[in-house]
Every structure is written in C-alpha cells, then in structure tokens.
Amino acid sequence: xxxxxxxxxxxxxxxxxxxxxxxxxxxxxxxxxxxxxxxxxxxxxxxxxxxxxxxxxxxxxxxxxxxxxxxxxxxxxxxxxxxxxxxxxxxxxxxxxxxxxxxxxxxxxxxxxxxxxxxxxxxxxxxxxxxxxxxxxxxxxxxxxxxxxxxxxxx
Length: 155
What we know:
By secondary structure, this protein is mainly alpha-helical. It is built from seven helices and two strands. A two-stranded antiparallel sheet has the order 1-2.
C-alpha cells in the first residue's frame, strides 16, 4: 500500500509542479523581481516565471506542513521520489527534513528501499512491454465516484 500511496503522491506533485511553474508568465515590477531573485531557489527562475516559482515553493512547503499525511511521511515520500529521480539536491533536502520531522534511520532506509523496488519493477515491466490491461486485471481496479469516494475491486 505504501508503494501505491507513494506513486499517487509523486504523480500529484509532478502535475502540480508542471502546472504551477511552467507556462505561467506574470508581470512583475523591477523591485519585486530584485527581491525574489535573491532567493537561492526562486532566483533560478527566469523573470517571466519567478512569481509563479515563488508561489509554487510556498504552496509546496505548505503541502508538507498541512497535508492529511503527517509531515514526516511527506518528507519520506519526497525522499523516495528524489531517489527514483536521482536528484542529489532533492535527496539531501528530503532526507534532512525527514529527520527534522522525526524520521529515524530505519524509516529512511525503508523509503530508499521503496524507491529501489519501484525503479526495479518499473524498469522490468517497461522493458518487458507487459500489457497494461492485463496488469490492471491482475492488480485490480479503482473507481472514484462524483463525491470523491474511492472504490476498489480485487481480482
């Protein structure tokens, strides 16, 4: 179940990140740009996109603090995603913040192992060109109704 949750969170974060930082250009005053470009992360963005990047970063940090998932587990999921994406900056930040939020070494090792298992299985299924329809029948199906209730059926 943790692998399924991690996959959903990773997909959600990827979608949110792509919508909030790419393609949204906003007008910005020289004074505001001068202030934002001093930030070590936000300042990496071009002027036309820097306000969107600042908004994304604030929202992303809020997600870790205010989610229905406890903060420690948010950072552990981030660590697993970072490891799978092979982002050394992200691994460092997520591991550091997971520890700050109370994660211990065994939990960090487990998050790393989940990332490794997903990477292995993903590569294996992809390279084997496993039929997705057959795979879904093997795992089970999931439907979300108009009220947001999730129903699953197992094979």
